[in-house]
Amino acid sequence: MEEKIQADEPVEDPEENAIIQPSPVPHRKKTISGLLKEMWPAYLIEIIVIILGISITLALEEWRDNSRENHLEQIYLKNLQTDIGTDLNSLGLAITGTNTLLQRGNELLDYTRTPDNKNISQTRVYEDVRAILGRPNFISSDASFTDLKSSGNLHLIKDIRLKNLLFAYYSETQHIREIQEAERQTAITLSGAYFLKQFPLDQTRNQEFSITIKDMNALLKNIEFDNNVLLRVLNRKELLDIYQRADSLAKQLHDHLVN
Questions:
Q1: Is the pLDDT at 206 greater than 60, yes or no?
Q2: Domains in the chain, number
Q3: For residue 5, is it within any domain?
């Protein structure tokens, strides 16, 4: 009986009960070349934005640097103009004083050449001697140029002719300092030592050291007197030539800076 019932029950088909699975979709691999092909517009835009941003930043920095350097250059040029103006005044005084000294020195030398043929004033001789012992010197105002070199800002001066004039002028002023120092040593150790023994430096004491015309003529004929006067004249003539060269350069510099 059981066997009959079991025989009558339908037999399940395993294939019919099996869950129907979707067929797998084939997976497409994403290669680098494929990604580039898909994303290149976005990448290109991003690169352009980055390059543009860097370019703008660099341009702004360059503009700020140029503005700062131009401002600093104008300050230096103004200070240089002031320094050269001061130097021109100092050179003018040195040239005038040296011309006076040379005039007095040449007057004494003229006396020494022909002392017997001149009515020599003792007071005038004393004045001449005191005059040739003077030292009208030039002192350069070089603070701005020195700062330009020591600070490394010399590149701010973009005018090549101006830069050449600056070097030529301040080289001349350095030469002046060296010659003035040598002249000072000569005046102290040679001429000054001699004249201090023979003549009063204080004009109020002229009468105390009064000597006769005969003695004065004898002194003026003295070779040591003549040599010391000549030494003063030659030393100051050398300085006058350098002062005049420096004055010419300073005027060119001043005109260039003003214009």
A1: no
A2: 1
A3: no
CA proximity to 134, closest of 180, 70, 74, 76: 180
Taking alpha carbons only, the member of 247, 210, 239 closest to residue 91 is: 247
Question: What is the per-residue pLDDT across 147-178, written as a single tens digit (0 to 9) for each?
Answer: 999 998 998 898 999 999 999 999 999 999 99
Residue 188 belongs to domain spanning: 49-258
**Sequence-ordered list of residues with C-beta below 8 angstroms from that of 72, at least 6 positions apart, any chain:** 153, 156
Is residue 19 assigned to a domain?
A: no
Give 5's pLDDT tier (boundaries 50, 70, 90). Answer: very low
Structure tokens at 213: 């015309």
DSSP type of residue 12: P
Q: DSSP letters along 24-39, please? A: PPPPPP--HHHHHHHH
Residue 11's SS3 state is: coil
Confidence (pTM): 0.72
62 assigned to some structural domain: yes
Q: Count Cα neighbours of 8 within 13 Å in the Cβ-side half-sphere.
A: 4
* Residue 113 in domain: yes
Rounded mean pLDDT, 38-47 = 72
